[in-house]
Amino acid sequence: MITRTESRWQTEDWQKAMKNMIRDVRSLYQAVNLNPEDLPAELSSRLDFPVRVPQNFVQRMQKGNALDPLLLQVLPQTAEMQDIAGFSTDPLAEAEFNMAPGLIHKYHGRVLLISNPSCSVHCRYCFRRHFPYQENTPGSQHWHKAMDYIANNKEIHEVILSGGDPLAANDDYLQQLIDKIAQIKHVKTLRIHTRQPVVMPERITNELLAVLTSSRLKTVMVIHSNHAQELQGDTVEALQLLQAHGIRLLNQSVFLKGINDTVQAQKSLLESLYTLNIQAYYLHVLDKVQGAGHFFCKDEDTKEIYAKLVTLLPGYMLPRLVREYPHAASKTAIDIIKAV
Q1: What is the pLDDT of residue 42?
Q2: Interhelix angle for 144-151 vs 171-182, to 10°?
Q3: In the chain, is it the N or the C terminus that has fewer CB atoms within a 10 Å radius of its CB?
Q4: What stretches in the chain show pLDDT beneath 50?
Q5: What are the b/e assignments for 185-204, b being 16+ CB within 10 Å?
């Protein structure tokens, strides 16, 4: 079994990486060799969604490039402060499906647990940037309502840990939560949605791997990478460690203006995922959350780029291009026939 090689990591303790992350706009700009005096003053005083960026992720940014695709995912813009028609604080109407504290039941056969309110990176396009985490963080001693709900619904066969980021929680907490889920006999699969292996690979420790593989549940991990530049260095080793421990890896990404809205950017990402044996799962159209309108791409442009990818790559390398509607029974595939 492959184990973590200490010398390949930035720190011996992943929690140190959490503490040492960048938390303000000026420091982020300085870290990539840009002049913070070029930033609008209001970015430091009017943000309702704070800056959080791990040092490891910053190291993969192109220094001196204000348009670096990794930087733009985490750098606040004055455009965030504009109210845009059609954008809302709850674009997926998750409040309507919040059946118990920390539990969202939207699709048949599976439920989502807000297992941790915090995240190791604040992506500026996050559809939960306005989510009421205070009302949906039961803590290790108060998951009984969510567990009772799952236990009483025998059609539920999969539990998804989301957040925030579930892997931003400590190992003891995750172990307790996974043990509670595994005690419900009709649950077969544990799915973990996380950005942590991509932005903070230090988190993938031997101790965490033991927690994730200790139960009878089949463990699937959906990572979130939007650009091939993210899949470098320690992140590659972290992903390989997860796979070596029998954890199946999928990737979901978001189509983002100015970041990956070109054929070449999408093709490079998909080729990198294939090289790492990670299945391209979903390519999401941006959820219309207030504060992220500057990332939105027109449907016709999105379809045109995806249609070109269809001609360049084999089908097994392509993700499903989808949009999520608040009350639909599943993700909705986007028809590209007219663009081909």
Answers
A1: 73
A2: 30
A3: N
A4: 1-2, 6-11, 339-340
A5: eebebbbbbbbbbbbbbbbb
- Would you say the pTM of this structure is higher than 0.90? yes
282 part of a folded domain:
yes
Q: Are 246 and 219 in contact (CB under 8 A)?
A: yes
Reading the block at residue 269, the tokens are 């990402």
- The whole domain housing 106 covers 94-339
As to burial, measured by CB atoms within 10 angstroms (0-12 exposed, 13-18 middle, 19+ buried), residue 12 is exposed
Q: In this structure, is residue 261 part of a structural domain?
A: yes
Q: What whole-number distance in Å separates Cα of residue 27 and Cα of residue 34?
A: 10
pLDDT in tens, 22-60: 999 999 999 999 999 988 877 766 677 889 999 999 999
DSSP structure class, residue 24 = S
Tokens 């419900």 -> residue? 184
State how far Cα 309 lies from the chain centre: 23
* Residue 321 belongs to domain with CATH number: 3.20.20.70
